[in-house]
Amino acid sequence: MMLAVKFSRRRFGALVATWAATLVASSSPFSAEAGSPDAGKLPTKIPEGTVLRIGDPETQRALELSGLIDQLPFKVEWANISGGPQTIEAFRADALDVGSVADIPPIHATWTGLKVKIIAAKFRRDPVAHPIYQLGIAPGVEVKTLADLRGKRIAFSPGQAQGALVLRVLQAAGLKKEDVNLIELPSKGDAYPVALASKQVDVAPIWGVLVKRYLRQYGADGATSIPHGLRDDPDHLYAPQAVLDDPAKAAALGEYVRYWALASRWVEQHPKEWIEGYYVATQGLNSEDGQYLVEADGRFDIPSDWNDVIVRQQATIDLLAKELNKPRIQAEDLFDRRFETIAANALNAS
To answer: What are the backbone dihedrals phi and psi of residue 95, each rounded to the nearest 5 degrees, phi first?
Structure first.
């Protein structure tokens, strides 16, 4: 990089300057655009005083409980932020360097003009048997199969994982948007179970302990749920391109991905500590609910090769682009493959 600046200042002429830039581009780890097929190696030097602003509350707690947090080779400013809308807003405000989301927020961010990259990908080993979401059915509504969704009012949140799941469920059922009534509702908190219970909608994707609570509270009134039968398990870390272009922060993110993987393994290997230290101590759940969530999660999977991940992401993009009238983008462009093997290698090395 310094060589390119030197030649430019001496005004050697177009030919020499071009040669110099080409030489530097082939040797500098920071020369290629992050995530491009010919991108250079990820920086590894973390200057003293480097700070990452991280929105990943679950990993933060896992790092604290495991003691791994004391090993992080950079400073952290933790933010109680997760999910697409919050992380995108924080990215735009330059208040966050990396966030934890599903597969839809990076797509939505790109459509809104915010350049971001996925830097870590985690899934569930048996995703259909361990889904994140179930389709909650309002009391008195008859839905036993996906085909029964025809004509129903379905909660829909564009730009979030729940919205994409609804579109994929309709696709699997051979239905079009016109065959149902999509009701746009934000999926924050318990908004969907409340909408179901009050019969604002007939069907809504609900997740985690909300499924258990919904059936416990309203099952006597006829509330039910059915599995959707699809994989809904993407769990990603993503960051703004501007952050990834900073060598110090990019190097720190590489280390964070490594510890993110180690924290995931610690959670799986220490379910009792996780239930009490996270679900009970910080989420206000009881031990029974925590055990329910641990069992629902199953075992995690972190691939060392993103080829299949990118194929699935492209299928999601194509569906959303068609149904939401958005431009088609390339899934490959959403992944910074400099980070591709870091998490899996961290697990294999320890």
So the answer is: -115, 0
Whether 191 and 330 map to the same domain: the answer is: no
Q: Report the distance separating Cα 87 and Cα 151, nearest Å.
A: 34
Same domain, 104 and 246: yes
- Domain assignment present for residue 193? The answer is yes
314 assigned to some structural domain: yes
Provide the terminal-to-terminal Cα distance of the chain, rounded to the nearest Å: 35
Domain that holds residue 10: 1-31
- Contact (Cβ atoms closer than 8 angstroms) between residue 214 and residue 196: yes
Pair 247, 313 in one domain: yes
SS (H, E, C) 48-75: CCCEEEEECHHHHHHHHHHCHHHHCCCE
Q: Do 179 and 253 sit in the same domain of this protein?
A: no
pTM of the predicted protein model: 0.86
Contacts of 238 (CB under 8 A, 6+ apart): 87, 98, 99, 101, 105, 106, 109, 116, 117, 118, 119
Which pLDDT tens digit goes with each residue over 267-317? 999 999 999 999 999 999 999 999 999 999 999 999 999 999 999 999 999
